[in-house]
Amino acid sequence: MELKTPILQLALDFLNLERALKVAKEAVKAGVDWLEAGTPLIKSEGLDVLRALRKEFPKATLVADVKTIDVGRIEVEACAKAGADIVCVLGLASDSTLKECVRAGKNYGAKIWVDLIEVKEEDLEKRAKDAEIIGADFIGVHTSIDEQMQGKDP
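Above: the chain sequence. Below: its structure as tokens.
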């Protein structure tokens, strides 16, 4: 996966696949680099979301924001087989889960993104370093939508 800077990622945080595909088509035309199958979309429609996005956008980088916290190997395998290039695991997950995600990612050709959402501010640097040592491909810090609605930011 070749990276350019900056990367524009669109989170498809919808409940409906049809609506997500419509928005994704317009976004890709406008130059979006990565399409994120958001957590609400995957929970609502299942991993068929990834299959549909892969069919519609065969060359796009697909991010599966499944927010894995346990059974890392199984979730990464399932997402990769469904078409994900990148799978998100929570930084709050155990080191064992992170390691299993990284192993599965290597085995199934997916990159691992460790999301530090809800990691306490005083623990962010250490957890990011831990994730790097374990082998995460990407480490992200963001504020949940619920927290943003309360005026908080990263």
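The beta strands are 9-12, 34-37, 61-68, 86-90, 111-115, 138-140.
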